[in-house]
From TrEMBL:
The keyword Aminoacyl-tRNA synthetase does not apply. Belongs to the binding-protein-dependent transport system permease family. HisMQ subfamily. The gene is artQ. It comes from Psychrobacter piechaudii. GO terms for cellular component: ATP-binding cassette (ABC) transporter complex. Its main location: membrane. Residues 15-215 form the ABC transmembrane type-1 domain. This is Arginine ABC transporter permease protein ArtQ.
Length: 246
């Protein structure tokens, strides 16, 4: 359907870079989000203030600007620090590292609110019951609360990851050889922009479909009560059909 004129393998390699970038940012972003939500719900006011500043700032800055700041500003900051110790060589932050940091920080800011709302959905009676059994606050949090948080937060986190996956295209502006980087080079070399950008669109669409299907499976696995209810409903329908035939 698409004549990529020898650029097909480059688009595939760019797809692997995009997947690595998205998964790396997801892993770090989930940790930042959980820490941010914990800080926002903390009884220590300084933690709450820091988490509020983090979410408000990062959600107000475009991801592209954050990528550019960390790529160019990160190099300048590292060199300024090392010059204090007598090191004067040029140091450049890699596009992949800048992209991971930028996307994970942005993802973490949004995930903070998702986790916070999920934690608040859990009845306070569970905290009180666990503490009445002699469990310490940290034990209650990690043994009782966190396992339930994932089930409640999965739909929101899934939507955020889809946004993150598409935002990986922004990192191509600093030279990361992802899908958009190779699509742009192929379009320039062949003067067939529509072909290459359409191919890139189909790749992103395919990745989105896979992620959506996986998230639906995770939600199904995380909700045993719903699975049991569906099983009972099927049995009831089957018994009704058999009774009607009899």
């Amino acid at each position: 359907m698409f004549d990529l004129q020898g650029f097909g393998h480059l688009l595939l390699s760019g797809s692997l870079i995009t997947i690595k970038l998205a998964l790396s940012s997801l892993a770090i972003g989930l940790v930042l989000g959980l820490l941010g939500a914990t800080a926002k719900l903390s009884k220590i006011w300084i933690f709450r203030k820091l988490a509020t500043v983090y979410t408000a700032t990062m959600r107000g800055i475009p991801e592209l600007l954050l990528v550019l700041f960390l790529y160019y500003g990160g190099s300048m900051l590292i060199m300024a620090v090392l010059q204090k110790f007598g090191y004067n060589e040029y140091i450049e932050v890699s596009p992949f590292l800048a992209g991971v940091l930028a996307l994970s920080i942005a993802f973490g800011a949004y995930a903070t609110e998702v986790f916070r709302m999920a934690i608040q959905e859990i009845p306070k009676g569970q905290w009180e019951a666990a503490e009445a059994l002699g469990m310490k606050p940290m034990q209650v949090y990690f043994r009782i609360i966190v396992p339930q948080v994932w089930r409640l937060a999965l739909p929101g986190l899934g939507n955020l990851f889809l946004v993150l996956l598409k935002d990986t295209a922004l990192v191509s502006v600093v030279g990361l050889k992802d899908i958009m980087y190779h699509a742009a080079r192929g379009a320039q070399a062949t003067q067939q922009a529509f072909t290459f950008y359409m191919a890139a669109a189909f790749i992103y669409l395919g990745l989105t479909i896979v992620v959506t299907a996986f998230m639906m499976w995770l939600e199904w696995r995380a909700n045993p009560a719903q699975r049991y209810a569906k099983k009972l409903a099927k049995q009831h329908v089957s018994q009704s059909i058999n009774a009607a035939k009899g």
